[in-house]
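User: C-alpha cells in, sequence out, please.
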C-alpha cells in the first residue's frame, strides 16, 4: 500500500462575491480561488499569486477517477469550496493540484480532460 497522506485536504475558497486581495490589492472576481485568513472576525482574502497557489491547476469536481489519481500524484492538494447562498453551506468545486499530477492521472486512466486550465 502506498503512503497515505495523514493530513486531509487543505481548503481554498472560490469567491462567491467580488473582493480584493489583502496583500497586493488586485481585484478578485467571483469564482477566483483565494485563501482566506480570519483576523478578528474579518475575513481577509489572498489571491492565488500571493498564496503561492498559481503553480497549481484547478481540477473541476466531477471525475472521481482523475481526482483520486491526481491527488495521489500531487505532493500538495487543496479542496476548492464555494459558499452556496441557496444551501447555506460550502460546496466542493474541485481540487487544486500540481499540473504534472493531472498529466499523470490522465495518462494512467486513459481519460483526457476536455478543458485544462493551463492550456489556454
Ligand atoms: Zn494578491
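Assistant: Sequence out:
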Amino acid at each position: 500500500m502506498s503512503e497515505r497522506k495523514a493530513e486531509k485536504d487543505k481548503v481554498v475558497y472560490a469567491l462567491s462575491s467580488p473582493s480584493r486581495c489583502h496583500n497586493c490589492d488586485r481585484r478578485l472576481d467571483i469564482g477566483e480561488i483565494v485563501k482566506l485568513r480570519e483576523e478578528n472576525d474579518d475575513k481577509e482574502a489572498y489571491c492565488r499569486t500571493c498564496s503561492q497557489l498559481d503553480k497549481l491547476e484547478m481540477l473541476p469536481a466531477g471525475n472521481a477517477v482523475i481526482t483520486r489519481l491526481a491527488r495521489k500524484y500531487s505532493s500538495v492538494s487543496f479542496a476548492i469550496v464555494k459558499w452556496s447562498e441557496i444551501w447555506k453551506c460550502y460546496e466542493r468545486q474541485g481540487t487544486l493540484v500540481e499540473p504534472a499530477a493531472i498529466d499523470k492521472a490522465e495518462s494512467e486512466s486513459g481519460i483526457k480532460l476536455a478543458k485544462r486550465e493551463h492550456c489556454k
